[in-house]
Amino acid sequence: MLKSVCLCHKAKLYHLGSDIKITKQKNTFFTYRGLYRHISGLKIALKGEHQWANAALAMAAIEIAGKNGFKIDDEAIRAGLKNTKLAARIEVLQNNPLFVLDGAHNPAGISILCEALKKDFSYRRLILIFSSLADKNYHQMLQKIAPLANKIILTKLKTTRAELPDNMLIILEKIGYKAIVTQNVGQAIQKAQALAEKNDLICATGSLYLAGEVKQKFPKTVSCDKTH
User: What does the pLDDT look like over 175-198, one tens digit per residue?
Assistant: First the structure.
């Protein structure tokens, strides 16, 4: 589909993996081999190796823009990657206990989060806070992330589009998992904090609405709450 659109508009299509390549180095550094540049020793502040691919595509766009007079040097690229911040995308809100917030709200996003939890964090137990909108595929999301969690806390969002925790609990029980049900996000956070012990990780995910409500409980972070 994308290839045919490019052909129709006589636009060049570049492929990550052939035209643009990234190579893993030691200690979370990576090398970029792009259309015209080769930059090694790059490090991105965002968690998750999938962010390397996102960064590579952004750098390729910079290269193309550079051919049209918009030039950015290698050191500016290094600084940009090092200082990049993205709210509610594998965002660490707290270190003791470790509290990670991710706005994944579909099975694909949850899969990426699961890979990051397995590869990019070290912890003893995972305490999961989960909520979802009723029109999202929370069945598959729970199927993917529940096996990683030692404790699961379900909660209800403020929006009228929210799924009821009891309905999500039914899905979990069908696939063999238990959960604690709370009535709001504040209660869910309090329960998770109470359950967390040394070297545990708390992760809140399932909805951008959940991300917004969680952010409101952490005043030192920038709120990404949505109007609804």
Answer: 999 999 999 999 999 999 999 999
Scored b (16 or more CB within 10 A) or e, 37-53 reads: eebeebebebbbbbbbe
Domain of residue 24, residue span? 2-83
d(Cα 60, Cα 7) in Å, to the nearest integer? Answer: 20
Distance, CA of 157 to CA of 180 (rounded, Å): 15
- Give the Cα separation of 110 and 190 in Å (integer): 23
pLDDT tens figures, 131-141: 999 999 999 99
Q: Which residues contact 175 (CB under 8 A, 6 or more apart)?
A: 142, 143, 146
Rounded Cα gap, residues 210 and 53, in angstroms: 26
DSSP state of 163: P
Which three-class secondary structure state does DSSP give residue 217?
coil
**Strand arrangement, sheet containing 30-33:** 21-24, 30-33, 38-42
**Beta-bridge partners for 31:** 23
Q: Do residue 197 and residue 122 come from a single domain?
A: yes
CA of 191: how far to CAs of 69, 89, 117, 155, 186, in Å?
54, 22, 21, 11, 9
Summarised one tens digit per residue, pLDDT across range 48-71 is 777 888 889 999 999 999 888 888
- Ramachandran angles phi, psi of 189, nearest 5°: -65, -45
Q: Is residue 128 part of a domain?
A: yes
